[in-house]
Design goal:
The structure is a single chain. This protein has helices spanning 4-15, 18-26, 35-42, 46-58, 78-89, 101-113, 122-134, 148-156, and strands at residues 33-34, 62-67, 70-75, 115-116, 119-120, 138-139, 145-146. The chain is built from eight helices and seven strands; from the N terminus they run H-H-E-H-H-E-E-H-H-E-E-H-E-E-H. By secondary structure, it is of the alpha+beta class. The chain has a three-stranded antiparallel β-sheet. It has a two-stranded antiparallel ribbon with strand order 4-5.
Length: 162
C-alpha cells in the first residue's frame, strides 16, 4: 500500500506539468470547456490535451460531462478551485510584467472584483466582507456566516433570499 507521501507526490505530479497547470487555471473561470477549447488555449494538439484531461480527471481534479459527441470538463468542485487559488497565491506577484494598457486594465479589474470559481473575491469581495462585518451583518467565528441582522437586511432591504 502506498504511503501518504507517495500519494501526495502522485497528486502533486498532476499539476507539475505546465499544460495540465494551464488547463486547471483556465477552468478557474467556472465554465465547462471542451477538450478542443483547452487544446487551443494551451497550444497543444487535441490528442495531447485529451491525455492531460484524462490524467486530471482520473486524479480527481476534473469532472467530465458528455453532451452528444462533445466532452466538457470542469473543476471537480469548489475545493479544487480553492486549492488552485491557494497555490497561485504563493507565486511571486511580480512574475508577470505589465506590457501594455490592456494588460494593466485587465489586471486592475481582476484585482478589484475577482470571482473565484463560485464566490466574490479580490478587493471588492474583501471590502464587502469588511463592511458587512463592521455593521454586524456577518460574523467570522469559524468561517463567515450571516447574523440574524444580516439575514433580515438581505431579505428586507436587498430582496435576496439567503
Amino acid at each position: 500500500m502506498p504511503t501518504r507521501g507517495a500519494e501526495l507526490a502522485g497528486f502533486a505530479a498532476l499539476l507539475a506539468d505546465r499544460t495540465r497547470a494551464d488547463i486547471c487555471l483556465a477552468l478557474l473561470d467556472g465554465r465547462a470547456w471542451t477538450a478542443g477549447e483547452l487544446a487551443r488555449h494551451t497550444g497543444v494538439a487535441a490528442s495531447t490535451a485529451t491525455e492531460h484531461l484524462d490524467r486530471l480527471r482520473d486524479g480527481g481534479l476534473l469532472v467530465e460531462h458528455r453532451q452528444g459527441r462533445h466532452r466538457y470538463v470542469q473543476l471537480a468542485g469548489p475545493q479544487v478551485a480553492e486549492l488552485l487559488e491557494g497555490m497561485v497565491a504563493h507565486l511571486d506577484p511580480s512574475g508577470r510584467p505589465v506590457t501594455g494598457l490592456r494588460t494593466a486594465t485587465v489586471a486592475a479589474a481582476l484585482a478589484r472584483g475577482r470571482t473565484c470559481y463560485d464566490h466574490l473575491a479580490g478587493r471588492l469581495g474583501v471590502a464587502i466582507t469588511d463592511a458587512m462585518t463592521a455593521r454586524g451583518l456577518l460574523h467570522g467565528d469559524g468561517g463567515f456566516a450571516l447574523t440574524d441582522s444580516g439575514s433580515a437586511w438581505l431579505t428586507g432591504s436587498m430582496g435576496v433570499d439567503p
